Amino acid sequence: MNVPVLTTTRLVLRPLVTSDADALHAIYGDEEAMRWWSHAPHDTLEQTRERVARNVAGPDFRVWAVTLRGDDRAIGTVNAMERRSGLIEIGYSLARAHWRRGLAGEAVTALIDLLFHQGARRLFADTDPDNAPSNRLLERLGFTLEGRLRGEWETHIGVRDSLIWGLLGDEWRAHSHSRGTVRATV
User: Fold this and answer.
1) Which residue of 27, 123, 160, 175 has the smallest Cβ count within 10 Å?
2) CA 186 remoteness from chain centre
3) DSSP string of the chain?
4) What's this model's pTM, rounded to 2 decimal places?
5) pLDDT in the model for residue 181
């Protein structure tokens, strides 16, 4: 699948490669970073290497490594999975050392711009109700809370509900223009 390089003010989003696993273990092996995921933190680097290899090979799953400009080391990921024609689920992760600097929002904004430019009609994200930072990010980006799926995920911290957030192309264009959102270049 097409995974173009995206450049923002502070970031470069490039195709994920298997050698990113060592750097991404800072996320996948971090208990706090993985708290709201559907699986437990990885105990070993080998688990992270296997996961990254699956993500790189995935035919219907596009994954970008998030890097700082001038430094090719992966500090996170953004991803897109087309569930049906024009309907794409997005996801994102960022190493804890880079939290609270606006980098996740910058990376996700670049992904949203690309997906709507490529013809998506609707994007959605699935979050844990208690993942306040992620829920705030989606709300800031103009997503609408569409519903709560009770008992949706059986996770390493128990059975969890799921919040579904949605965003339509027209909503994104209106939201991003009104806020002067930073645009990515391809």
Assistant:
1) 175
2) 18
3) -----EE-SSEEEEE--GGGHHHHHHHHT-TTTTTTSSSPPPSSHHHHHHHHHHHHH-TTEEEEEEEETT--SEEEEEEEEEEETTEEEEEEEE-GGGTTSSHHHHHHHHHHHHHHHTT-SEEEEEE-TT-HHHHHHHHHTT-EEEEEEEEEEEETTEEEEEEEEEEEHHHHHHHHHHHTPPPPB-
4) 0.91
5) 46
Residues lower than pLDDT 70 in the chain: 1, 177-186
Measured distance CA(165)–CA(147) in Å, rounded: 7
Amino acid, res. 144: T
**Residue keyed to tokens 């995206």:** 6
CB neighbours of 29 closer than 8 A, spacing ≥ 6? 41, 42, 43, 45, 48
